[in-house]
Amino acid sequence: MSEGDSVGESIHGKPSTIGSFFTRVGQIYQSWLDKSTPFSIGRWGVTLSLTAIYMIRVYILQGWYIVTYALGIYHLNLFIAFLSPKVDPSMLDEDEGPALPTKQNEEFRPFIRRLPEFKFWHSATKGIVIAMICTFFEAFNVPVFWPILVMYFIMLFCITMKRQIKHMVKYRYLPFTHGKRTYRGKEDTGKPFARFTSYIQHLSYCNYSEP
To answer: Could you tell me the keywords of this UniProt record (predicted)?
Structure first.
């Protein structure tokens, strides 16, 4: 075997050190994500803390308003996807497809979101981290009159939420899943057993009291 063949085998036959490093980092990152899945309150607490740190940093630096505006638009799109059903009810016939949960539904039907809660949290947190990194680069500090951005964002938020609420009212669905209904028996369900126990005790007393 020539020297060139041995070099090619070492390059193409085995993964590089950099590739192995990033693969290992990705595995560790995914493992931590899997472990954090059931702790929704703790996850969102961390996200809110990162948001507060980012807002304080932007306030102190007095800049990077374009980045903040883009972050707000991104979070608004995530929130709308979180409130929307996975399957658009306008694309379904009345007698086909799973019905969305409403107050009138007698059968328990969970609300399937277009964007699940975990993916919503993960994407929102990544957006905050990326926006935080952007504040360390002056190239992203585009001078702009920030009150206009605030006004645009408020208008966009109101218009988007109004359209979403109209969609919910039109197709009569709720973006939340209520607990499965449980049915209780009658209040006197335990009375026959109590009567039987009293009868047994009465017989035992009678047998004991006989001479």
So the answer is: Membrane, Transmembrane, Transmembrane helix
